[in-house]
Amino acid sequence: MTAFKHTIIVGVGLILLAGPASSQSSATKPRVPLDNGASKDKSDAKAEADLIRKGRQSQARALLFALGSDARSFRDQRLRARSLARIADALWDVAAEQGRTLFREAWEAAETAVRESQKRLNLREEVLKLVARRDRLLAEEFLQKLKTDQQEAKAEPSGNNLPSGNNLWELPEALEKRLSLAENLLSTGDIERALQFADPVLGSVTISTVDFLTLLREKNPAAADRRYASMVANTGGNMLADANMISVLSSYIFTPHTYVIFNTNGGADTVSMTSSFPAASVDPQLRLAFFQTASGVLLRHQPPPEQDQSTAGIAGKYMVVKRLMPLFEQYAPKGITAAMRVQFESLNSQVSDGVRQSENEWLRKGISPEKQLLADQEQSLLDQIERAMPSDERDELYFQLALLALSKDSLKARDYVSKIDESEFRKRAQAWVDASLAISVIKKKKSETALELARSGELSHIQRVWLLTQAAKLLAKTDRDKALSLLDDATAEARRIEGVDLDRPRGLLAIANALILIEPARAWEATFDAIKAANSTEGFTGEGGVLSLHVNSKSLISKKTEAVSDFDIEGIFGKLANSDFDRAVQLAGIFQGEAPRTNATIVVARSVLNDKSVSVPTPKPVTKN
Known about the structure:
Helices cover 62% and strands 4% of the residues. The protein contains 26 helices and four strands. It has helices at 35-71, 77-91, 96-116, 123-134, 136-149, 173-187, 191-198, 207-219, 221-236, 243-253, 284-298, 313-331, 334-350, 353-357, 370-387, 391-407, 412-418, 423-443, 447-456, 461-474, 480-494, 503-518, 520-535, 569-579, 581-588, 594-610; strands at 258-262, 268-272, 546-552, 557-563. The radius of gyration is 30 Å and the shape is globular. It starts with 34 loop residues before the first helix and ends in a 15-residue tail after the last helix.
């Protein structure tokens, strides 16, 4: 293992020239205003701060240059690629040419890692996301290489506006990478550059392109609506457009981030966010354009089954029309709505009784009021429990009720789980429910409910540590003593985690992240404890911290992860570096692993390069144990 040594320290000499100001005591001279001295002091202080800032930035650049040299020798090509790309990104504003060189080296390392690994790696995509933020031409060069390697040369958007293979879920792989880059740029607020990458692929109607426009609308409604209008117009002229394409297009206006595609048997394939989003408030003319295009496609003559090449077939088309009819009746012109009623009755007579009588919940998802939909589902499950005979069947129904209550963030979920007879299943279900509720109550800032779950919930050690630290942060301003007491409890809980478990340093980092808010002086020692714990584990990188939940029953296996930034080193090291740069550099160097040491050092250097003001704390040595 190559140990990174901080061998470059740039000293900053400050020469303050101060001389006594001459004054005249003549009574006939006007008196010097009292604030002149204050103004001069402010000017001197600003000049001093500027000198310190420039010196710190020189030190940070030198730190990154040294780290870059060290990263080139990392044996782990994945770590080499990630490190070089992140160093390049951090250096870009102060050393763009060096950054460009590092980006190219990062790309080469990523390609080597992909060749050497038997698994699919997204390393090149990780590098691309950072490059796209900095250098569009270089990103286009890498995209082309990626496309060639994937043999996607033929996967350009087709003139008929339909992705290859009638895939309404996503674009071909190389184009999906381009859209992913654009979405990443959009998330950072760089709308102009995001559209430079996205525009070449926004001619295709897929869930991924429509969802990009939905995300764009949250930041720039006019730009999104223009592109959506073009997409709708192109669909109207596309003879291969079918019912499912209309269903996907409808989501932009009426059910943002919720997509329903029906198969040829009338079953639904869906994508839906956990949160519901209100319908978009678009110009009535844009809404009218959608209904005109939608009716034009949905009213087309249905070919015989043996000639039907659509993704929906007659059963799927029937279900799409059935789903969208309430929208036609509420918003579309009377003439269009009347024609659609006739088409619905015609399709109704052509499908089987099973399709006609099916009541798939996705028929109403996002269109009918959510509360009524959930209430109907709850009553249906309760009715089934009344008729259920075997206890294991009732257990499954109670678990489904608990999941339904969770979707409403209701504590009734715990009551339903408690009615499960089989003890092991009840325990697994209780763990899922309590962890899910913990995440929900923290998001809603319900500190009292969080504390009750921390006391009595079926939680793992790391889940309880996270819950206690988040509750402490919620109480930081209103009850500091209580918050500190919770952090003591969290510390005791973290120490119950095995020393080799990666959750131990993550939990201690969460405590440090809470202390930096509540009692900053203690955050240094807490971070040092986390580093010692990290040095006792294998594979700790200081990033990618998550809460993992899983549960299984006879009817389903469910897993989910919740990203937790407080488990990572980025936040805490950024804050510590803003307080005391030199001490933070020393602290980062204590990590024995190449990955966490590199990540922490980049964070520390970036905090100075991005900061416009610098404080000058008294240096405090870090003791290594």
